[in-house]
Design a protein that fits this description.
heterotrimer, A alpha+beta, B alpha+beta, C alpha+beta, A: alpha+beta, Aldehyde Oxidoreductase, domain 4, Aldehyde Oxidoreductase, domain 3, 3 domains, 7-stranded mixed β-sheet, globular, C: alpha+beta, Uridine Diphospho-n-acetylenolpyruvylglucosamine Reductase, domain 2, Uridine Diphospho-n-acetylenolpyruvylglucosamine Reductase, domain 3, Enolase-like, domain 1, 4-stranded antiparallel β-sheet, 11 helices, 14 strands
Chain lengths: 773, 174, 292
């Protein structure tokens, strides 16, 4: 028999290369005769371009070309980029030109392109391009964007409203009419940017004789890049190969399609030389999509016992200057409502508005952290006002295990009902509370208080729709040497795809992990893929790898049954062989079976068999599995400085069947730290005129090791009935509830000051102001 | 005579120089423009791409390399400054190509990396730190890597790896 | 983020340095490079000439000279942090250095670089102020000595002419029985402080006989709280006195920036001064500092 790999804590197959410095990230790729690109980017949040003088730059030694919109448009139809995710609700579907035409709408928008011998020279040239701007008024604060006299983000748009979406079900008016209590909260939420340690980057090479383009891009979605580029250029999809090499973190913003992914291949084609552009950190702050502000005004109707009857409210969502990624971020800000709670009526609308800032797209968790934060704020509000323990309010309102599958009443964009497939929210809560020693917290708090220390505890529960469809595919092919080639479309940015997919295939085929050769993230090696977003890879690739491996297994057994002259049911796979159950001597190796199915010239494929010992599957999940869990944060607040220190952090997490516990724990811990960063540190500040003010890592504060707590984790495993392995996604479940837990803990620590936090990230100065009243 | 005396009238930035250094124990000679920082020199002139650039302004620590025994940020030194020095990068931290350094081993065991981009800087930083602090506490390790940003792991598995590496290094008497 | 081109010089002696910078108006001195090189990479600065001080051996090292310490301006922060001489004679310096950046930056960063960059919150500037450091600068006309109190002229601007170089920092360690403390509030480990405070108090016969309190982060340069020092002198240390000192410290003239207001900086000045005084007393009594 083979080794039990699914559920085992195996070391990662990726790590040996990465640890030795042999990883290959996009900036590690060099091509002969390669040239380098630097961009001149807009220094204004909103301006009309009057004139661009590139003469001096063109004449600099080592410069091969300086191009503006006009230069490129003279030989190529340089149109606005297309909408990646069109939706009828997008009323003003404004996307950007890859290079600005007449108007720039955010600091960072590309104005001119320099091609040079090396990056340093390209930057020398950028410095001496002279642009005359006519500076226009800019709108920066999303809360002001819809005021009657607000500056317009675009000269020609009618106003700053991009569109309105809504989630609505149940009898909301009735709920608010009959409820014992109505509580209202208003708050601003600010989520930060990507800040993968590797910035973005593109290398492009054009083969003129075959008219093919090869792109290496630091992307989460090579297939999306391929399709978008093919559409933009009017080329065959198959004449473009997009490779995501090792990618140094993604977190959402690398899932889009960017202007640079058009310009760099265009230049490679027109210059007849490979072209490289590597985003530097200064660019990353303005050129890579981010998340930023949402303003929530929300109210809850409940009974005297804390049972929620309805939630309603209005949200304003800042989308930046363009709509590069449809309404995926706004949609995911509403779909999680009402979280893990059985709420009969919900009515929340969300207005998407333009601002003259870097365009927005999902960052780890997308809109879900906003929505969960809003619901959890309401739970805390009920708890405080009705003086019911915060855990108890949750217990009373949770969807119960026996209600599964539970349809919330909300509808997905395709009109199908939102349905929680499985889960035990009560159990997760109790497990998290136990881990956090919640029962003894009051004692800890009062003894701390006697030492003039202010500690607090905060709970946050969540659900997460994971495993967004439609599919990812996997091919499993046994090679003549017995090694098993596994190919999938999904690109990895560090999530350990190689490892967990190898675990599934190796267990199914009873081979060792080392026998698996894994390739992914290359459109030249696997025909179709979707992308690594929305906690969807394990849910989609997992079942397809399992199905493909099983198909190979079946084929191997069927063939071996002829070779070994034994009945199929008497055969098993073991150590790379098919053998008669328990009899090692009566066996044939998978490699030999593969040879039999791929004969040389003049040979014959056994009748009844197709060539090659391989199978491909696109089997995914039959709908979105809902992951869930509860986080408990314990903090200490220094009331003199306003500093918040995390003391303990406990997580109960349910992502269904776990394939590799260490990989899942890694996702959770990293995700929680991202959420803590949102709660306490990461803030992108713009001046009123739209200048980014926190665009260095000295000003934009990413979480460091010293400020992060140890995070303790306990698992609940409610297998999803929606896919063959019972998997739910795990990539974002750490981040989604974390901010709400930290903020609740801070409020709890400052209970006696009656502090109500109306904004995150919590700024220590603001906190002292709240403490002082 | 100092080179600058010869060059004082020459065009700005034209005083490229030949430098020699030991990279991971091997003697290397190359001509460098003064403005090329050490990280770009290692990566693009010498092809040692294990050293990564995360911010180029001295905060993220991804580019950390060891120069004459000290962990330093290679984006904040010019290549011209390492003339005659000993530089160790991630490619040279293990005894041989075939083995891993105990810190690398521990990272592997504890999943101390995900995307791997910050990893070389983390390992180089910890190697220098553990040499001087063989019995670190967990918080001392957190402090030691506070100049290295990791966006993936939340640091906890890195700390666990470093604690174990410290024990193993001590036992090996390294 | 690639630096502009520049001409590079790596002289061996102070006189060569002085000669170079006298001849080249648009030259920058490269010490540890931990502040300068980021500014070059961002192209905030585009000097034509870089004069690297890393080969000027006379600028390195810590010497004991009678009752004072003579610290070469190119002495690395890591050397100061770990120097037995510093730890024994003026441990406030190594305490403060624990807050300066990280191992990798301290291994290159120098005391002179920090003093010349003159970040408003730079820990070494605060300590230099608390010790009344004397700074020797060398130019064509020879040496001149500048008191730390006269060193900051404006934001990021020391009293140094373009053709001068800071060569030496003279610190006079406190001899009598005294306590010391350095604390700061920063959001994260190694960040520049929002407010930092250095405290030295000498106790003679249970009474504070001498006090030095310096704040960083409130103004262009470090600020000595002379009124607080006066308040403390002649008093016996205790909770009430330190509280009063904190309230007085809170009255300091403080700046504001995009992140933090004047009021908040005043609040921190008061709170941290009070805490640092307790810390210094604890140290005097041989206990660990109460707050870090």
């Amino acid at each position: 028999m083979g080794v039990k790999y699914i559920g085992a804590e195996v070391q990662r197959m990726e790590d040996l290369r990465l640890l030795k410095g042999s990883g290959r990230y996009v900036d590690d790729i060099t091509r002969d005769r390669m040239l380098h690109v630097a961009f001149l980017r807009s220094e204004h949040a909103h301006a009309n371009i009057k004139n661009i003088d590139t003469e001096n730059a063109k004449n600099l030694d080592g410069v091969h070309g300086v191009l503006t919109y006009r230069d490129i448009a003279s030989s190529f139809d340089l149109k606005r980029m297309s909408q990646l995710f069109p939706a009828p609700v997008i009323e003003q579907n404004i996307t950007q030109y890859p290079v600005a035409n007449e108007e720039v709408c955010y600091v960072g928008e590309i104005v001119a392109v320099v091609v040079a011998e090396n990056r340093a020279v390209a930057e020398d040239a950028v410095e001496i391009i002279n642009v005359e701007y006519d500076v226009m008024p800019a709108i920066i604060d999303c809360r002001l964007a819809l005021e009657p006299n607000a500056p317009k983000a675009h000269n020609k748009s009618k106003n700053n409203l991009v569109g309105v979406i809504q989630t609505s079900f149940g009898e909301i008016d009735e709920a608010f009419k009959t409820a014992d209590h109505i509580f209202r909260r208003s708050f601003l939420q600010h989520r930060g940017g990507c800040h993968a340690m590797e910035c973005r980057g593109v290398v492009a090479e054009h083969d003129a004789s075959e008219n093919t383009l090869t792109l290496w891009s630091s992307t989460q979605c090579p297939y999306l890049v391929r399709r978008s580029l093919a559409d933009y250029l009017g080329e065959n999809e198959e004449s473009i190969r997009v490779i995501a090499p090792d990618v140094g973190g993604g977190f959402g913003p690398k899932a889009g399609f960017y202007p640079e992914e058009i310009i760099v291949p265009l230049l490679a084609r027109s210059f007849g030389r490979p072209i490289k552009w590597i985003e530097d950190r200064h660019e990353h702050f303005v050129a890579t999509t981010t998340q930023r502000d949402q303003k929530w005004d929300v109210e809850v109707a409940c009974n005297a016992d804390g049972l929620i009857k309805g939630i309603r409210g209005e949200v304003t969502h800042e989308n930046g200057a363009y709509v590069p990624y449809g309404f995926l971020l706004p949609f995911t800000s509403l779909t999680p409502l009402p979280g893990p709670y059985a709420v009969p009526a919900v009515d929340v609308s969300l207005k998407v508005v333009f601002t003259n800032t870097t365009p927005n797209s999902p960052v780890r968790g997308a809109g879900r952290p906003y929505a969960i934060y809003a619901v959890e704020r309401l739970i805390e509000t009920i708890s405080k006002n009705l003086n019911i323990d915060a855990a108890e309010v949750r217990r009373r309102n949770f969807v119960k295990e026996e209600q599964m599958p539970y349809a919330t009443g909300a509808l997905l964009r395709d009109g199908s009902p939102v349905k929680y497939d499985s889960g035990n929210y009560h159990s997760c809560l109790e497990k998290a509370l136990a881990l956090a020693h919640h029962a003894s917290f009051k004692d800890r708090q009062s003894s701390a208080r006697n030492d003039s220390r202010f500690i607090g505890i905060g709970i946050s529960s969540y659900v997460e729709d994971t495993g967004l469809g439609p599919y990812e595919g996997t091919t499993v092919r046994v090679q003549p040497n017995g090694k098993v080639l596994v190919r999938s479309g999904s690109a990895s940015q560090g999530q350990g795809h190689h490892t967990f997919i190898a675990q599934i295939v190796a267990e199914t085929l009873a081979v060792s992990l080392e026998d698996i050769v894994f390739e992914s993230g290359d459109t030249g090696k696997f025909p179709h893929g979707v992308g690594t977003i929305g906690s969807r890879i394990a849910v989609n690739v997992g079942p397809s790898a399992y199905e493909a491996a099983n198909a190979v297994k079946d084929k191997a057994i069927k063939l071996a049954s002829e070779t070994l002259e034994a009945a199929e049911q008497d055969l098993e796979l073991s150590s790379g062989n098919v053998q008669v159950k328990g009899v090692e001597d009566l066996s044939v190796s998978l490699g030999d079976l593969a040879r039999t199915l791929s004969p040389k010239a003049g040979g014959k494929v056994p009748s009844g068999f197709t060539p090659s010992l391989e199978a491909t599957s696109y089997t995914g999940s039959n709908g979105s599995p809902f992951a869930s869990g509860t986080n408990v944060a314990e903090v200490e607040v220094d009331i003199l400085t306003g500093n918040v220190k995390l003391i303990n952090y406990s997580v109960a997490h349910d992502c269904g069947t776990i394939i590799n516990p260490k990989i899942v724990d890694g996702q959770i811990i990293g995700g929680v730290v991202h959420g803590i960063g949102n709660a306490l540190f990461e803030r992108m500040i713009y001046s009123e005129g739209g200048q980014p003010l926190t665009n260095t890592y000295a000003d934009y504060l990413l979480p460091l090791a010293t400020e992060m707590p140890n995070i303790e984790i306990v698992h609940e495993e409610s297998a999803s009935p929606l896919n063959v392995l019972g998997i739910k996604g795990a990539g974002e479940g750490g981040t989604i509830p974390a901010t709400a837990a930290v903020v609740a803990a801070v409020e709890n620590a400052l209970e006696e000051f009656n502090v109500e936090i109306d904004y995150y990230p919590i700024n220590p100065q603001h906190l002292t102001e709240l403490i002082d009243g | 005579m100092e080179l600058w005396l010869d060059l004082k009238e020459r065009k700005r930035g034209m005083n490229s120089r030949e430098i020699s250094l030991k990279l991971n124990g091997c003697e290397v000679t190359a001509t460098v423009e003064p403005r090329i920082h050490l990280a770009d020199f290692l990566r693009h002139t010498l092809g040692a791409t294990g050293t990564h650039l995360g911010c180029e302004h001295g905060v993220c620590g991804a580019c950390t390399v060891n120069v004459d025994g000290d962990a330093v940020r290679s984006c904040l030194m010019f290549a011209i400054q390492v003339d005659g020095k000993n530089v160790t990068t991630i490619e040279g931290i293990a005894n041989s190509d075939k083995t891993l350094h105990p810190i690398q081993e521990a990272f592997r065991k504890h999943h101390g990396l995900q995307c791997g981009f910050c990893t070389p800087g983390m390992v180089i930083t910890l190697e220098a730190f553990l040499k001087n602090h063989p019995n670190p506490t967990e918080f001392e390790i957190r402090k030691a890597i506070s100049g290295n940003i990791c966006r993936c792991t939340g640091y906890q598995p890195i700390v666990a790896a470093a604690m174990e590496a410290a024990t193993n290094l001590k036992n090996q008497g390294q | 983020m690639k630096s502009c081109n520049f001409s590079y010089y790596d002289p061996n002696t102070v006189s060569e340095v002085v000669s170079l910078i006298s001849r080249h108006e648009n030259a920058k001195l490269l010490a540890g490079g931990q502040s300068l090189v980021p500014m070059l990479n961002f192209r905030i600065l585009s000097p034509e000439h870089i004069v690297d001080l890393n080969k000027v051996s006379d600028l390195f090292g810590i010497k004991e000279n009678g009752n004072h310490l003579s610290i070469g301006s190119m002495t690395r922060q890591s050397e100061l942090l770990n120097s037995p001489l510093i730890i024994q004679s003026s441990p406030l310096i190594s305490k403060a250095l624990g807050y300066v950046g990280h191992d990798q930056t301290r291994n290159r960063g120098t005391i002179g670089g920090s003093l010349c960059h003159l970040d408003p919150a730079a820990e070494l500037c605060v300590v230099a102020s608390a010790y009344n450091a004397e700074l020797t600068v060398t130019g064509k006309k020879g040496d001149r000595v500048i008191a730390m109190s006269d060193w900051p002229v404006d934001f990021l601007t020391p009293a140094l002419d373009h053709d001068e170089i800071l060569t030496n920092i003279r610190i006079t360690p406190w001899q009598g029985s005294h306590g010391f403390c350095f604390i700061e509030f920063a959001r994260r480990e190694g960040d520049f402080a929002i407010v930092a405070v250095a405290v030295l108090i000498e106790i003679t016969d249970h009474v504070i006989s001498k006090a030095s309190i310096a704040l960083g982060g409130v103004s262009a340069g470090p600020v000595r709280l002379h009124d607080v020092e006066t308040l403390l002198k002649g008093q016996s240390p205790g909770q009430e006195l330190f509280k009063e000192a904190g309230l007085l410290a809170k009255k300091v003239d403080a700046m504001s920036d995009v992140n933090y207001s004047t009021n908040y900086r005043k609040r921190l000045s008061g709170a941290l001064t009070e805490r640092a005084l307790h810390g210094a007393m604890a140290r005097f009594k041989g206990e660990e500092e109460g707050h870090e």
